[in-house]
Specification:
Distance between the termini: 31 Å
Strand order of the largest sheet: 6-7-8-3-9-10
Helix content: 25-40%
CATH topology: Rossmann fold
C-alpha cells in the first residue's frame, strides 16, 4: 500500500533557550493512501502543533515529514506554496469560505488558479456536489447556507483538486449533531475517492467515523486503535476506554 504521509522522528520546540517547551517529542507515524485517521489528545498534548507542521503552517525543529514521497520540511518559497496549493486540501472548523463568492465559485477557485478549463471545472464540481448533496445550493452565497451545507461546500473545495492529503481541523466543531453526522457520513465518499484524511478532533463521536484513532499525550503517541471490523458504536466504546486511560472526563481529556 502506498504511504501518503510518513513522519520521521519529528520534534518541535517553542520559546527561547532559557525557557524551552517541547510540543512534539520524537514522534513518528505513517498514513496509507485512502486512510481516514483521527488525531486526539488533551489541550497542550501537541495534536494541533502536529497538524500545523504537517500542513506546512509551522516548521519542525528536527525530523522529516514526507507527503507523497516529498520531504516537505525542505520546501521553501514558491515551491512550498505550489505544494500546499496542489497537494493539500484543508477543512476548517469555521469553514473559511469567501463571502463574496457563491458555493460553486468557492469550490471552483482552486481549480481556476491551476488554469483548469471551465468545462472540466464544471464536470468535477457537478460530480462532487452530487455526492456531497450540495447541488441545490451551488448558486447560493455562504450567508444563505446552513452550517452543515457550508462544511460540505468546504469539503468539496478541499477535495476538488484531488490532493494527496486532506487535513481537517475540528470539522464538526461548529455544527449541530445532525449536521455533524451527515458530514461524517459523507466523509465515507471521500474514502471511496481514495482521499487520505488526517483529522484533529476533541470529540469521540466524530473520531468514531475514522478507521484509526491516534492519541497524543505530551507530544508523543500514547496509543492508537484501529476500527477493523467493529461497528461504529463498538469503535466509539473503544475510544471512550482510551479516554478513561488518559484520565479525566471527555471535556478535560480530549
Amino acid at each position: 500500500m502506498e504511504k501518503i504521509l510518513k513522519v520521521e522522528n519529528i520534534e518541535k520546540y517553542y520559546g527561547s533557550r532559557s525557557s524551552l517547551t517541547k510540543a512534539i517529542d520524537n514522534l513518528s507515524i505513517e498514513v496509507e493512501k485512502g486512510e481516514f485517521v483521527a488525531i486526539m489528545g488533551s489541550s497542550g498534548s501537541g495534536k494541533t502543533t502536529f497538524l500545523n507542521v504537517v500542513s506546512t503552517i509551522d516548521h519542525v525543529t528536527s525530523g522529516h515529514i514526507y507527503v507523497g514521497g516529498i520531504d516537505i520540511t525542505k520546501l521553501k518559497g514558491n515551491e512550498l506554496n505550489k505544494f500546499r496549493r496542489e497537494e493539500l486540501g484543508f477543512i476548517f472548523q469555521d469553514f473559511n469560505l469567501l463571502d463574496t463568492l457563491t458555493a460553486y465559485e468557492n469550490i471552483a477557485l482552486a481549480l481556476s488558479i491551476q488554469n483548469v478549463s471551465a468545462k472540466e471545472i464544471d464536470a468535477r464540481i457537478k460530480k462532487v456536489a452530487e455526492e456531497l448533496d450540495i447541488k441545490s445550493v451551488l448558486s447560493k452565497y455562504p450567508y444563505q447556507l446552513s452550517g452543515g451545507q457550508k462544511q460540505r461546500v468546504a469539503s468539496a473545495r478541499a477535495i476538488i483538486t484531488n490532493p494527496k492529503l486532506v487535513l481537517a481541523d475540528e470539522p464538526t466543531g461548529a455544527l449541530d449533531s445532525k449536521s455533524a453526522k451527515m458530514l461524517l457520513e459523507k466523509f465515507n465518499y471521500l474514502d471511496e475517492l481514495g482521499a487520505t484524511i488526517l483529522m484533529v478532533t476533541h470529540d469521540a463521536f466524530t473520531a468514531s467515523y475514522a478507521r484509526r484513532v491516534v492519541f497524543i499525550k505530551d507530544g508523543k503517541i500514547f496509543k492508537e486503535i484501529h476500527k477493523g471490523n467493529d461497528s461504529r458504536k463498538e469503535f466509539f466504546d473503544k475510544i471512550i476506554d482510551v479516554v478513561t486511560l488518559l484520565g479525566g472526563d471527555l471535556n478535560d481529556a480530549l
